[in-house]
Amino acid sequence: MSMRTLYPMMVNLTGKRCLVVGGGTVAERKVARLLECGAEVEVVSPTATPRLATLASSRRIRWRRRTVRDSDLSGAFLAIAATDDPEVNRDVARGVQSVGGLVNVVNDPKACSFLVPSVLRRGELTIALSTGGGSPALAKKLRQHLEQTIGPEYAKFLRALRLLREQTKQAVRDPKKRQAIYRRAVASNLFEAAVHGDPALVASEIDALVKLGRPASPRT
């Protein structure tokens, strides 16, 4: 069996129409992840879990209470086939791909044009793990290992690094000097300052780092 090399990417789903075919617990998990990313979610299924029904009644998602039609597959930014019928899932996959869309089929990596990785989030930090469909259990185990190493403090650190980046781009014109500051920052005292949660200390550390890239003042 030939191995596919998948292109890893992070996709902005804000405001994008995303289709989920199926209304069971697996579909519910897929819908929850899509909503976290700001997608406009449409579910097509004759039945749905209580949670999905609640999301529909509150207009968080659109629920079409019927079986899927070919017309549902056009115009979706991406689609997820999550019914309990493998043949229906494969039909959805073929239909979506025939109109140039991206599709994920639950428990059928060969039918997918994209795979959903195991994800660790720490604020804006996102770490995605994929085994190419070979072993989702291994991806989950590795994610759980990383959860013990990369804690919530990294969300605070990333916010400080983003602030550093914004200030550096304004104060330092030389791209090489900016990159040197960014490299130094990830191993600097900025981490401890961010975790401590003292805005004045964070500002002080950022200022010290930015000064490294500023031209020296002329001597008088």
List keywords for this structure.
7 strands, 220 residues, elongated, alpha/beta, 9 helices, two-stranded antiparallel ribbon, single chain
Structure description:
The chain has helices spanning 25-36, 50-57, 70-73, 86-98, 136-149, 153-171, 175-185, 190-196, 199-211; strands spanning 17-21, 40-44, 62-64, 78-81, 102-105, 118-122, 125-129. The chain is built from 9 helices and 7 strands; from the N terminus they run βαβαβαβαβββααααα. It has a 5-stranded parallel β-sheet, with helices on both faces. The longest helix has 19 residues, at 153-171.
Number of strands: 7
Which band does the percent of strand residues land in?
Answer: 5-15%
Helix content: 40-55%
Secondary-structure element order, N to C: EHEHEHEHEEEHHHHH
Query: Over the alpha carbons, how many angstroms does the gyration radius reach?
Result: 23 Å
Based on CA inertia axes, which overall geometry fits?
A: elongated
What's the structural blueprint in terms of helices and strands?
Elements: E1 17-21, H1 25-36, E2 40-44, H2 50-57, E3 62-64, H3 70-73, E4 78-81, H4 86-98, E5 102-105, E6 118-122, E7 125-129, H5 136-149, H6 153-171, H7 175-185, H8 190-196, H9 199-211
Parallel strand pairs: 1-2, 1-4, 2-3, 4-5
Antiparallel strand pairs: 6-7
